[in-house]
Write a structure and sequence with these properties.
Blueprint: H1 10-22, E1 26-38, E2 43-58, E3 64-75, H2 78-90, E4 95-102, H3 105-113, E5 116-120, H4 121-131, H5 137-146, H6 148-157, H7 165-178, H8 180-192, H9 203-229, H10 235-244, H11 246-269, H12 276-281, H13 289-301, H14 303-306, H15 309-321, H16 327-333, H17 338-359, H18 364-373
Parallel strand pairs: 3-4, 4-5
Antiparallel strand pairs: 1-2, 2-3
Helix pairs in contact: 1-4, 2-3, 7-8, 8-9, 9-10, 9-13, 9-15, 9-17, 10-11, 10-13, 13-17, 16-17
Length: 383
Amino acid sequence: MATPPGELDWGQKLAVRRALRVMGAGTRLNVLLANVSENHTSVQPTSYTDLDVFGMQVLPDFRLAYTLAYCTTSAIGTDRVLWLRGLRDEFEGATAILVAREIPRSARELATRSHIVPFTEPELEVWLATHTPRVGDARRAFEAALEPAVGRYHAALRTLPRAFDQLVGFRDYLFLQFGPARALQLTIGYLKSAQGQWHAKEPLHLALLLDIAQLYATALLACARHVLENAIDRELDGVENFVGGGILGRREKQNFARLLTDLLDELERGGVHITPGMRETIRPLPHYTKDLALLTRQLLDAPELAQRLPWYFETLQLAALQRTQDLAGRLVDAGDPEMSVERALRLAREVLSFLVREAGLDRGFLDAFDQMLAPPLLPLGAS
């Protein structure tokens, strides 16, 4: 497999990714972490580091378990071990993995004391062979067929028109910076930032949309966990509290919106033209909170499917880039139960459909999604 330019550690990244995928995690490679400053007109990120491999696995209580991996074809020093420990501490409860050509004794001892798993390349191969669940030949073939698309996708992102720059920046680092509650609202705006440039028949565009949908699904999972943890009976209340920054934050926004509404009413009575858009901007919560509540309910009703949702979205993204046909059948052939595949793909389609609708994108993306799966899926809840 060709190594992307400047990616001497690409093989190591793919090996770690392979192990995480086998264990049911969704993965992202070369994830940037940045300090972000905001002003009234723009968001200015300053990249300061990146994660070679970022794994996301959903636990039964809807918590996200992260795996961070640093890979290098050079010898590793204690400074990089400390650096990785610092990154790991930013993601509470994360697992950290270190893969290097050579690991001196001092670095290995520090890694072990820091609860970081150190591997040389041969050690990683042994670990893959002995500690990952046994995988059948069909599953290995399925994963091997998708793997070439990983490098192609990362290279293709840099060829998109400039109209996609804001969205790609959001994908690269801003999503993690903003956090799930804000991301549930901001994602729609970033999708709209490339308005007029989306083409439903372009595989790269469908892959990018599914990539964003994976991130959006993780924000929905955080919302579902909020509902569970706070024992909220009505999902709508839980979603509004989550998006609004808690009960007090939500009430504060609602009260402020009422004051602004009264002010606009007063101006309108005085002859000032008030547009519907001006009123929309002062809404305390997005108009689609009921739809978010419905998606949250669907996640809560199917926790076993929600646990693999990041994995499924990554699979869909790579399959879209490769113009895969009969993906549902291929997943079943690879060992996934047919009923689970159908329900998981329906859930993924519900998230995708929501994003297409709210961002005003071409419904041809949904047609392309359905054609990739073949035969078409029934809506969630249908028998």
